[in-house]
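Report of the visiting student (M.T.), summer placement. My assignment was to run the structure pipeline on a short list of targets and document each run. The first record concerns Phosphate transport system permease protein PstA.
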Amino acid sequence: MTATDLQRPATAPAFQQISSARKAKNTTATVLVGAAFVIAVAPLVWLLWTVVEKGFSHILSSDWWQKSMSGLTGRQAGGGAYHAIYGTLIQGLVCALIAVPIAIMVAIYLVEYGRNSKLAKWITFTVDILSGVPSIVAALFIYAMWVTTFGLPRSAFAVSLALVLLMIPVVVRTTEELLKIVPDELREASYALGIPKWKTIVKIVVPTALSGIITGIMLAVARVMGETAPVLVLVGYAQFINYDPFNGNMASLPLFMTTERLTTNEIGEARVWGAAVTLILIITLINLLATVISRLTAVKAK
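After the run finished, the C-alpha cells were exported:
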C-alpha cells in the first residue's frame, strides 16, 4: 500500500459538489427574500424621507426650540414647539417613574418567586391582556377612573397614568425574558456562599441583566411618547408653556400636530411636519442613549 492510498478517505465525502438545481433554488430564494425586504422597507424609507424633507427646516431654527405658540394664531407665522417638547418629555418621564419600578418588581416576582404559582399565572394573563389593549381604551379607562369617578380635572398627569398602562407590559416582558437568561449557576453559587435570595437578586441577578433591562425601558419610553389617543382624551392643548403636570392644560408633540393640522393652511401644515421631525429626532436620541447605556452597563467578560 502506497502513501497515496493511506491519505485517501475510506469512504467518499458526504458533501458533494452543489448541483445546479440547488444553486438555482438558493438564488431564487435569495431574490425573493431580498424583494420582500425591499417591499417592506420602501414605504418606511419614503415616509421618513417625506417627513424629513418637509419638516427639517424647522428644527434648524433656534426659535423652534426656545419659543412657544403663546399669543399667535394658527394663521400667524413664527413661534416654536418649546411648550410641546417640554410636555412630551415630562409626560414620558412621569410615566417612566411610575411604570418602571412596578414592571421590574412584577418581572422579578414572576421569574424568581412565583414560578408556576396561580398568582404568577394570573399576573401573566393580565400582562398579556394589557399588552394588547389599544391606547384609546387605556385613555378611556383613566378618564372613567380619574375624571368621572374621582372628579379630578384632566391634566398631563392623567395622560401619564394612561401611558403607564401601555408601558408596564412592555417592560415586564423585556425584564422577564432577560432575567430568565441569567444562568442558574450564578444563583446557586451565591446561595452556596450563604447569601440570602433577595440579596442575590439585587446584587447578582439584576446587575447581570441590567444592560438589556435599561434598553427595554428606553425603547418603551420612546414608544409611549408618540401615543396620540391619551393626550386627545385626557388633557387640553395649551399654546403656552405649562410646567405643572398636575394642573392646567399642557401641549405635547402629538397634540401639537393634531391642533395645527386643524388650521388647514400652509403655516399650520408646515408646523405639523416640523413637529413630526422633532418627535422622530427625540425618539432617535433616546434609542441612541439606550444603546450607549446598554454598552456601559453590560457585564464585561475578562
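The CA atoms of residues 18 and 165 lie 54 Å apart. The mean pLDDT is 87. I thank the supervising group for their guidance throughout the placement.
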